[in-house]
Amino acid sequence: MNRGTGIKAVVVGGLTVGVAAVTAMMVRRKKQPAQGTKGAAGATPSLTQYPVPPVPQVPGATVTTPGVTLPSTQVTIPSAVPSGDMQQKVAAAIASNNPAQMRAVAAELRAAGNTTGAQSLEQIATLNESGNAAIQAGVAAVTKILQGTPATSSTAPTPAQPTPAQPLPSAPTPQPVSVTVPTTPWQLPSATVPQLPTGPVWPETNAAKVDLAARTNAMLKQSKPYSENTALVKQFQSQEGLTPVDGLWGPGSAVRLAQQYGIVPAAPYYWSKDKTKVPAQKAAYAATMAALAAKDPARAAEWQNAAIVATGQSASVPTSSIPTSVPAGIPSELTSLAQGIPGLSAVLQQVTQQVPTAPEGILTSTVAWPETDPGRRDVANRMNVMLAARKPYSEDASLVKAFQAQESLSPVDGLYGPGTAQRLAEDYGIIPTKPYYWSKDKNKIPAQKSTYRAALTALSVKDPLRAAQWLAAANV
User: Fold this and answer.
1) DSSP readout, 29-41?
2) How many helices and strands, by DSSP H and E, does the chain display?
3) Nearest to 363 by CA among 251, 253, 261, 295
4) Is the dihedral of CA 452, 419, 391, 456 positive or negative?
């Protein structure tokens, strides 16, 4: 039997029983305990003061009991039981409103071979039990509303039964329920956030000045002498109070950028017009880069490279002060954490998108790169520094070959192409000079460049603290 809408009749063992009568008896049973006794065999049981309605089907009757909605379909059981005593037993069991008695008769039906009739009678017993439970729950709910206090147990006490002639007792006045609202606001649990490796603090922290310095340096690294944006250089010189404000990128402007902002500077474009003073200028510049390498050992290799590019002289910094790798910090941990928490990936992506506005050279990579061998890293650094200072067809091909040979690249031809540049980036974490040479087959160049851009863009996600530099290098 399905539950959800009202039924009109139940037919058990060839006997049609009016559900209106059954339901009425279920409700009255909750009002007053049954006092009737079973009469002679074949007689219909009755309840004291409440005569049982006749057994025959009540056409079109629809009954709803409190808390129970009966199905609209009627269950028809094939008349496989003999008439007489068994039908009387079925009728008596249903009229008794006693699930245990119904199940006992159902067992007899099953023993007599009428399995379908037994199942239907058991369903009526189950429905009766469900009705009892629903009525009890309804009584408990009404009791709580009238009393205005929560019940002390899951089963509500049975209220006193009024006689039919007596009116219902008046409901007591509901008592107000006091609710205590906590005064202490709920707070997020504290969490330990990994910290970036500590580094030197640079004198200039004004955001506008830092932005101008970073833009000036980025422009110079992408330009060449006599093709630079001199107006931007003049703006930086004026901001720093340098003289003369001539728009010429010389060692004085580069040293100012390095010492005040901690930005590894583009190599000076112009030196003294008096050639006799140039060696001393370059020596002083190399010494300044060496001092900054000692102050900022995490980027000692970058400061050394700046000295080599500008002067051809290596900054005198002990190799023991140059770390071969930097431990991973926030970026890698956040990336791993975001994979298991919905919504965090989007936040991390927003943070990463903001990184390119940070000053170039100030942020230190916190990613551990695959190649840590000092000798191999030295070859890689020297090759990249040389290429940054040269032009195609003027590079030191032997140094390129040395790097290609140590990396087992093929061919070892001394030509600095995208494969060599990508190895430098992915294994060493060195932002590579843009490739000099691409495929001789011009039809293949677009695919080569697309692959190269994708590789460096992926590194900008892996190393978000230098995302701006990676993305600039990917612009081929």
Assistant:
1) HHHS-------ST
2) 16, 2
3) 261
4) positive
Mean pLDDT by 10 residues, the chain (476 residues): 44 48 52 46 45 49 45 46 70 83 87 84 82 66 59 52 60 63 55 55 92 94 92 95 94 95 94 91 89 88 84 52 39 48 51 42 65 91 91 93 95 95 94 94 93 91 86 89
Q: Give dist(CA 360, CA 62) in Å, integer.
A: 82
CA–CA separation, 261 vs 205, rounded Å? 8
Q: Which two tokens stand for residue 208?
A: 């506008």
**DSSP string over 238-282:** HHHT-S---S---HHHHHHHHHHH---PPPPS---SSGGGHHHHH
* DSSP letter string, 419-453: HHHHHHHHHH---PPPPS---SSGGGHHHHHHHHH
**Cα separation, 385 vs 387, whole angstroms:** 5
Q: How many CA atoms lie within 13 A of 130 on its CB side?
A: 15
Contact 101, 128 (CB under 8 A): no
Residue 343 tokens, joined: 């919504």
Distances 98 to 48, 65, 138, 402 between C-alpha atoms, Å: 16, 17, 20, 98
The neighbour count for residue 67, using CB atoms within 10 Å, is 16
> Do 117 and 17 contact (CB within 8 A), yes or no?
no
Residue 12 backbone phi and psi in degrees, to 5 = -125, 125
Q: How far apart are CA 81 and CA 117, in angstroms?
A: 8
Domain segments of the chain as ranges: 9-147, 207-321, 330-473
Instruction: Look up residue 350 and give its two tokens.
Output: 């927003």
CA dihedral 93, 96, 98, 103 (to 10 degrees): 0
Angle subtended at Cα 180 by Cα 179 and Cα 186, rounded to the nearest 5 degrees: 125
- Nearest alpha carbon to residue 302 among 268, 265, 270, 269: 265
Q: Which amino acid is at 305?
A: N
Cα angle: 328, vertex 334, 335; to 5 degrees:
90
User: How far apart are alpha carbons 51 and 95 in whole angstroms?
Assistant: 11
Put simply, whether the predicted model's pTM sits higher than 0.85 gets the answer no
Measure CA 153 to chain center.
42
Q: What sign has the CA pseudo-torsion 283, 289, 290, 295?
A: positive
Q: Is 126 helix (H, G, I), strand (E, B) or coil?
A: helix
Q: Is the dihedral of CA 180, 183, 188, 193 positive or negative?
A: negative
Q: Helix axis angle, 251-261 relative to 230-240, nearest 10°?
A: 60
For residues 85 and 450, give the distance between their C-alpha atoms in angstroms, rounded to a whole number: 92
